[in-house]
Amino acid sequence: MLAGFTGTPGKGAHTKMTETRTNTAVLTKRGAARAREGHPWIYRSDVAEAAASAGDVVRVTDRAGRFLGRAFYNPKSEITLRIAEREEREIDGAWFRRRIERAGACRESLKIDASAYRLLHAEADGVPGLVIDRYADYFVLQPGSAAVERRLDHVVAALEDLYAPTGILLRGDSASRKREGLTRKVEVLSGEVPDSVVVHEGPVRYRAGLRGGQKTGGFLDQRENHIAAAQYVGGAGRVLDVFSYAGGFALHAARAAESVEAVDSSGDALEIARQNAELNGLDNITFTRFNAFDLLRERSDAEARYDAVILDPPAFAKTKRDLPGATRAYKEINLRAMKLLAPGGVLITCSCSYHFSRELMEETLRSAAADVGCTMRVREWRGQALDHPEILTIPETRYLKCAVLERA
Ligand code: SAH
């Protein structure tokens, strides 16, 4: 597929100056059009020629030699090029520092009422394949591209200089690393990092497992939805939080409602949720280890009623191919949840599957409501927290949907 590929093994040992001057990639007409439209991902089939090796920064041009940008190169990845810079600028330590500084200024402006947040959201903050999450005095890095992995020293230097953190952890255990040919590793890059740390999210405190927890320790993209949920369930009697994990929604809901039942299939997650409830002095949460599909079916068959149901499942559609099955699963849990609502009850329902679009989710919810025969009023459509920005020209940066519906 890589016609004209002139791979030069051993290039990686060159200095970065040499790299950016000599490594080049030429795009096909379609690839060049895509780059000009503002999408940073260039697929393998859109790369006409490349003279570089995995992890290099390459100068990208069209077939006529017109400059399109500088990109992170990885021939092992389906996304062979990730455009990181659209000007003729060197991608060096100062470049990484500027990007991190800019992302930090954006987070400052958000006045986030939490000690854990996403400092840098990969492509959406101009550094393809790098996530930086902050947990109080610690930073957790998730590199998802070979070029970033090779330049982590720049990232660490910038963070040390800008934030003087107590420790920086590399969480190299995400599924996407495999596709980039990166090996699994979790290691401390600077200072000291404990296994977990207590952070706050609005009025709630929770323990985030930095080394072993899901994602980098918490579902930071749900922060604003967690806080909004407390408002929607305010004064409610019984709340059912399904797919609870460490209690992201349950803890906030329990401060506002009479009682919350947190459901998850993972005993470990529920044990952390229980500790988090204790940390907040909340004694109105019960924890049920159960398969969500079975529990929702059993409860709705038994005609149980709740004032609020929260659904925050894992991504059912990781790829486009998963969509038919995923759609059925989303419909099933939402249909059951709607049945469980008392009149005036609130359904807070989420999907973090990019492929399951907002339109498709709306259609699925509509079809569930029709089957139940209930009227659902739309209170609000929400998305991911603002520290997980979206880029208009990169649809993949908009992935989390959260609908708040009220049963009339
Ligand atoms: N609501 C949480 C995040 C949920 S992550 C928050 O806001 O922080 C998804 C959770 O679903 C995980 O904890 C996982 O253990 C759980 N899960 C996945 N499949 C499940 C199933 N079939 N039944 C119950 N829980 C499930």
From TrEMBL:
It is found in: Cytoplasm. Gene3D superfamilies: PUA domain, RNA methyltransferase domain (HRMD) like, Vaccinia Virus protein VP39. The keyword rRNA processing applies. The keyword rRNA-binding does not apply. One of its GO terms (molecular function) is RNA binding. Residues 24-105 form the PUA domain. GO terms for biological process: methylation; rRNA processing. Residues 1-20 are annotated as: Disordered. Belongs to the methyltransferase superfamily. RlmI family. This is 23S rRNA (Cytosine(1962)-C(5))-methyltransferase. The lineage of its organism: Bacteria, Bacillati, Actinomycetota, Rubrobacteria, Rubrobacterales.
